[in-house]
Design brief:
Length: 415
């Protein structure tokens, strides 16, 4: 089993402080991840054993260290000699550092269906345009480097537990103001939720969005034209803690995880902010102490396509999971402005997936589910690549794809 993120007593804080002092350049949300090394692991192990009966989730100070809710791992050898990961929670170190430690539920099992994989009770369109929900912004944080193509923000919204959702669903956001052309309210914009149902703080009372600021470059002005900027994305990226966000949903069922068979492999393909639902998947399967995580024995494989290294999203979190679960979590990036494909051209997402075409096809033939999320322009290249590979394998592409859709293994959400 996994023991969820927690901290009880000063021992863990002391060991974390000692570790930070030794490695001052280590980012806060990776400090606890590395505490499994040497003596630090033994300290953590003792704390975990003493606290096992009364462990509590730590809600981090998201406005200070928004990425550090990522649960850290102290690897401990169990009685049966198998290696298990006990989550200590990087949020522990961050929260302790700023004196904002908050105790919550013992583990993430309080928002589960019974059994946990039963999707018959999934919430859909609980809040509609005429009767929306109003959440409050907890934090808004730019999460890309200076050389990224555009600005992408991670926005945490407090819904007080009144707006439940599942991984793979979307929230609708109604930006404030009226449309200039007719004076009517702005239309709803859908955004894939970038957290698990428990939220970044694992309290079940928040949810996160991953939003790229939409701008329009005017060749005549040689600058961004503010009159043509994305209304909703700019509103969200400009929000501050305490701001209201009017929301609808949750929407969608196409991107849900089929969890009944814990040995199911998941192949996740994204471009840009299409990474959002997969962050929720990865947290649910590897970071949180959920029934799904405790049962999961398959492999999750993430492909992300962005322009360059500065545009990578949640890389620190994914690398941490990869280091802890090298056999169960795979990670591949397509960096179009830094890598070349086999033909010497730019490396796009379809090129990266094609490098592993045989493995991907084998997994799909054995029941794996494949997901696509991002700009709709990604799909023609993806489908063309799959068609070419299928033909080389002597398969009729249309029939092959039809079979995947019939067995509900093919999931697409593009915009």
């Amino acid at each position: 089993m996994k023991i969820t993120s927690c901290v009880i007593g000063a021992a863990l804080v002391a060991s974390a402080s000692a570790f930070i002092a030794q490695k001052p350049n280590v980012r806060v949300n990776t400090v606890a991840l590395q505490m499994a090394d040497g003596k630090k692991r033994e300290i953590a192990k003792k704390v975990v054993k003493r606290a096992a009966g009364a462990l509590a989730t730590v809600a981090l100070a998201t406005t200070v260290v928004p990425g550090s809710a990522m649960a850290a791992k102290a690897v401990v050898e169990t009685a049966d000699k198998s290696t298990k990961a006990y989550a200590i929670g990087a949020g522990v170190v961050a929260a302790a550092a700023v004196g904002k430690t908050v105790l919550g539920p013992k583990k993430q099992d309080f928002l589960e269906a019974k059994p946990y994989y039963d999707q018959s009770t999934i919430p859909v369109n609980v809040y509609k345009n005429k009767a929306p929900f109003t959440g409050k912004v907890v934090s808004t944080k730019r999460i890309v480097g200076p050389k990224a193509t555009g600005e992408t923000c991670h926005i945490i919204i407090d819904h007080k537990g009144d707006f439940p959702y599942w991984e793979g669903q979307s929230w609708g956001v109604i930006p404030p103001g009226k449309r200039e052309k007719d004076g009517k309210p702005h239309a709803v914009r859908l955004y894939s939720i970038a957290s698990s149902r428990y939220g970044d703080d694992m309290s079940g009372k928040t949810g996160s969005l991953c939003v790229r600021r939409a701008t329009y470059w005017c060749p005549e002005l040689k600058a961004d034209d503010p009159a043509k900027k994305g209304i909703c994305s700019n509103f969200l990226c400009d929000t501050k803690p305490g701001d209201d966000v009017v929301m609808t949903g949750p929407a969608g069922k196409v991107m849900l995880l089929p969890e009944e068979d814990p040995e199911t492999d998941y192949i996740m393909v994204a471009t840009g902010t299409g990474i959002a639902p997969y962050r929720g998947f990865v947290r649910r399967l590897f970071v949180e102490d959920t029934p799904a995580a405790n049962a999961y024995k398959g492999q999750a494989w993430l492909f992300l396509g962005v322009a360059n290294s500065d545009a990578l999203l949640y890389d620190d979190e994914f690398q941490s999971v990869k280091s802890e679960y090298p056999e169960q979590f795979r990670l591949d990036y397509a960096l179009s402005r830094e890598q070349e494909n086999k033909s010497g051209g730019k490396m796009y997402i379809q090129d990266k997936v094609e490098e592993y075409a045989d493995e991907v096809f084998d997994k799909l033939s054995n029941g794996a589910h494949i997901y696509f999320c991002g700009l709709k322009g990604m799909m023609p290249g993806i489908q063309s690549m799959f068609k070419g590979v299928a033909e080389k394998k002597g398969l009729v592409y249309d029939e092959w794809l039809k079979g995947l859709k019939k067995s509900k293994q093919w999931h697409v959400e593009v915009y």
